[in-house]
Amino acid sequence: MGDDAKASVGSMSGGAADNVLEQVLRAEREAEDRVADARLCAERTIDAARTAAQAVERTTDRRLEAIRRSYGQQTDALAQDIAAHAIDETGTGTAPVDEEAARRAALRIARRLVGLPE
After folding, report:
1. pLDDT of 63 strictly over 50
2. Counting runs of H as helices and runs of E as strands, what totals does the chain give?
3. Which residue range forms the structural domain that includes residue 25?
4. pTM for the whole thing?
């Protein structure tokens, strides 16, 4: 406290000094209450943001899984078409066709066509 503040508090009567002290304590309690309210509000905001982020994550995971399944189905369908075409074209030759090798080759080609790794 500065000298002026000490002098003004010192010149107050006992009741006036008590009144100032009560005001200071009340202001301090109100400030603590506001800080506690702000912390609670911040925690609620963080919880809501976390919940929203988890919902977005679940939605994204479901979409990615659906895309993966779709690509898998497209790959299988293309592999079957390519294998059938390869067997039709090579079936007229004299050498026997290794159907498993044709299926693997068709699957590799189909995966390339839809952008998946072999």
Report:
1. yes
2. 3, 0
3. 3-113
4. 0.46
